[in-house]
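User: I'm writing a tutorial on reading structure tokens. Could you give me a worked example: one chain, its sequence, then its tokens, then a sentence or two explaining what the tokens reveal?
Assistant: Sure. Here is the example chain.
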Amino acid sequence: MEPFENDIEYRTPEEIKSFQERLLQKTLRYLADRSAYYRRMFERYEIHLEQIRHIEDLVKIPFTEKKDLQLFNEEFLCCPRERIIDYVTTSGTLGDPVTFGCTELDLQRLAYNEKKSFACAGLRPGNIVQLMTTLDKRFMAGLAYFLGIRELGASVIRVGNGIPELQWDTIRRLRPDTIMCVPSFILRLIQYAEEHGIDYRQSSVRRIIGIGEGLREQDFTLNLLGQRIHEKWDVDLFATYSSTEMGATFSECEYGCGGHLHPELIIVEIIGEDNLPVPDGEYGEIVVTTLGVEGMPLLRFRTGDIAAKRTEQCRCGRWSYRLTPLVGRKHNMIKLKGTTLYPPALNDVLDNTSYVENYVIEVCESDAGTDRVIVRVGLKPTPEFDAVKDLKDRFRSRIRVAPEVEILPVEEIHRINFPAKSRKPVKFIDKRNQS
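And here are its predicted structure tokens:
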């Protein structure tokens, strides 16, 4: 890896590309030597590695998809099992979770990744980070954050997720300057503080790093969730994008204009509906090739996430390209009354409606074969007006169409949001194409 003090992200685009292509050659040789799955792929498709010299040549190689990881999991392992020291699983967003084995080198890579990402967000030795994510349940991200904060030389407070009372008690006692959590949980923290007389605006917290949910629109202005947080609490907001499969994080810098690539860790392609790369700046599916992974490296893995590359130099001085906020997941695209949208657009409306306590969005096929969207909502103290009509009006003003809206008890929605064994709240259920 490039020394941290001589960061490749500040080199010219040509230097970054040449640097990544050298690492790609090394990765391809490693896969040919160690991976049963990719060795079989290379033979089946008659792929000669000497022909894959540039990033543009990756189009000659088939994609790796989540179903491949599920069906042939053992064949992706590139080292003896005794070298694996930590097992993690994906969250199962698109089906059954996938297991990944991490070696000591992989954990060091994760620490380096998060060290760079936290530094990008302005953290330095001496900062105190309250980590509101779980480190158990085979969750890679929580472990990676802990390792990265430790590697950076900052202090970490491992509180875990939920329990606003414990979070505020910890903030009062240990005075962290940074908290890291799912952005919508910030609204619960603020609500708890207001209900219990906590002057959160005068707390020690000056920075919030969000995970798992977007904070910005495609023009990088704050979305409704980000605006609502910022109106209540004058703190610096940073959004991140990461996944277990890529073992890398795209973190915003202080200018908030997209998540920065760490070129020594990952190669990103953006592909269109024809499965070919789109021009820079156009939206498409994120496809990743991991660099420097020892246990289970991936080649051209389809993430299902939709975004675009921004290649102009950032005001922070970095030349490494950035990813825009996610538009959504390709497999979750909804066609509602002629309008194409993704679940985050619906979440944005619901997360910023003060009388909505919780919700779940369900998509199924109508009798006519079109998408039917039902939003089931739990309310705070029932408003005096017609909540269903008001919600539909809010949807129309934001996304031009309105889904079906049903009001259910808060407790019933909570049971759907937090099923047994789930690490993340379930807010979207896709029942299309199910037999």
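What the tokens reveal: The longest strand covers residues 356-365. The chain has a mean pLDDT of 91.
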